[in-house]
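Data availability (excerpt). The following record was deposited with the supplementary files.
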Amino acid sequence: MANSKVSAIFFLLLYASLLYFVFTMNNMVAMYIMAIGMFLEACEGVYCNFFKHH
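Predicted structure:
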């Protein structure tokens, strides 16, 4: 979603750390980070669609 600059930077850093853990073969940590990132993006989408007034 990334509807603000802050959330875009946050998700960029989150997924950069995800890539680091994938490349260093820490796959369970990478899986946790991916699950958390996907959940936070879904929460952001729900917030922007239902609670943010345009």
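Summary of structural features: The chain has a mean pLDDT of 90.
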